[in-house]
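Step 1: inspect the first sequence and its tokens.
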Amino acid sequence: MNLNVQEIRELMADLEKSSLRDIAITDGDFSLHLSKNEQVQAPAPAAPVAAPAANVTSPSTPVEAAAEVAATKAPAAGKEIKAPMVGTVYLKPKPEEPDFKSVGDHVEKGETVAIIEAMKLMTEIKSDVSGTIAEILVENEEVVDYDKPLYRVTTD
């Protein structure tokens, strides 16, 4: 599936008019995520945020540079801890407390590394691997999709 710029703009307009907050379309190696959630810090009109795959470009829409770089980067060494659900990820147990894990911290299998909020329900995300946190792949309070990598862990 490939969409041209006009079709993406039409999807953005439809999303803007609807009560949905975001939409994700995946077909093979094609992926498109449109969201009304304000994640871009650049001043822009109240347009949805588009994070298209590398084969779809839309220069007139705000695009998260991190998502574009992540799509083109070769996978790094280590095992990833992935989001088991769609929702808002919290890397801290409470807003005033430190992160569950930082780069360089050791993590044990079964240890809580994040919380994902979906429909007002908080779900603890536990590590499925033991090792050292090599990279944190998401920001606190970022909206994540199913199977999105949260951490990269160098195994013991």
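Step 2: inspect the second sequence and its tokens, then contrast the two.
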Amino acid sequence: MSDKSPDAYRTISEAGEEAGLPPHVLRFWESKFAQLKPVKRAGGRRMYRRQDVQLLKGLRRLLYDDGYTIKGAQKYLREHGVASVAALAEASTPSPDPAQDIKTSKVATQVAVQSDAPVTPHRDEPQQAASLSGGQVDLARSALSRLEQARARLSEVLEKTA
């Protein structure tokens, strides 16, 4: 993160770096999400406010971490508002409940979790020792936790529709 004040405007490069996104993604998302409107200076140079960066982080979480499509994220943004999506930027904010967005179908009711056994590599595959940094381990644990929460929510939805 930069040395700038939290209230300072950020260029597209700075905003992208803070949100973990390349600049071309920010420009594309501007065309897909009407709520994302950075201030444009003379010559069309984009300047992002703090709330714009928070919205970018929230959209990134919806699209990249929680698996929403652009259309799904647009719907979520319309239904829950900018503040709700921006709040998703905080790591402590729980992911949205995907059960609210699932439309029940015959296929969904027939899907069941087959096994709780961990996936193991084939015997022919060499086992490689993973050397991860502390940050990578934390990210992996966080991702595993979110996957387990999603699996539990999916199981609940499937039980209700069965």
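Step 3: confirm your contrast with the notes below.
The helical segments are 12-19, 23-32, 50-65, 70-80, 82-87, 106-110, 134-161. DSSP finds seven helices and three strands in the chain.
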